Amino acid sequence: MEFQLVKSSQEPLFAEALSLYDEKLNISLYEDSKIFKQSLENKYTKDDYIFLVGIENDEVVSLATAHYEATTNSSFLIYLIAKNVPHHDQLMDDTLEEVKSEINKLSNQVHERDVNFIMFEVPKEPEDPDEETQTAIHHRQEFLQNHGFRKQHEIDYVRPSLKNETSSVAKDLYIKPNIELSKDIYGTSVKSNYILKYVFANKIPRTIIYQLLEQMKLRKTTH
């Protein structure tokens, strides 16, 4: 497998990657192509946004996207998906390692060291899952733990609803730390990544995002 970075929504790989995204997640229920285009092309995010595709036999087989937040030297992994093929898990492993490498390239350009941590939202675990759901949860947990991610319990994490911005959706937040995280570093970095993603990339009004930050007991910022 080879990897390529997409830098423009006009590149053929952009449309191919979104077809995989739609196949895996159903674009009608998740973020539409506008959000990806905004992330790639608006002046606040385009230089620190990673849109990475994995290619096998001239076909897009995986996708990872992430924002790098330079002020706190941290990153927000947004999507990590791979085609449903027999070696799906290997595609996921390889794609995650590659996107981590690209994040660290950005980090080293600014700070001459690797990123402090990477955060990743995942669906919240239901209280009483059925057997199929429990198996999927266990597989996800094992995958993330094998790559150094740990579920955090410090914040009752929510993200804005993708279809109704004034409401929120509870999520689980996983963190891959590369340094020992003090409370100040941790909270400030989560907040900064949250604003980068949802204010500057998604263009959700600041008032809505600040309300969610307050709900999570993260202080307002002067961004």
Structural write-up:
With 223 residues, the protein is an alpha+beta fold. It has one domain (2-215): Aminopeptidase (3-Layer(aba) Sandwich), CATH 3.40.630. The protein has 6 helices and 8 strands; from the N terminus they run E-H-H-E-E-E-H-E-H-E-E-E-H-H. Strands 1, 2, 3, 4, 5, 6, 7 and 8 form an 8-stranded mixed sheet that branches. Strand 3 and strand 4 (74-82) form a beta hairpin. The longest helix has 24 residues, at 88-111. The radius of gyration is 17 Å and the shape is globular. The mean pLDDT is 91.
How would you concisely characterize the structure shown here?
With 223 residues, this protein is α+β, with helices and mostly antiparallel strands.
Main sheet: strands, sense, barrel: 8 strands, mixed
Work out the count of structural domains: 1
Radius of gyration: 17 Å
What level of helicity do the residues show?
40-55%
CATH class: Alpha Beta
> In what range is the share of β-strand residues?
15-25%
Query: Which fold name corresponds to the CATH topology?
Result: Aminopeptidase
The CATH superfamily name is Gcn5-related N-acetyltransferase (GNAT)
Mean pLDDT: 91
Low-pLDDT segments: none
First-last Cα distance: 39 Å
Structural class: alpha+beta
User: What general form does the structure show?
Assistant: globular
Query: What is the count of helical runs?
Result: 6
- Tell me which CATH architecture applies here: 3-Layer(aba) Sandwich
Overall number of strands: 8
- Provide the succession of SSEs: EHHEEEHEHEEEHH
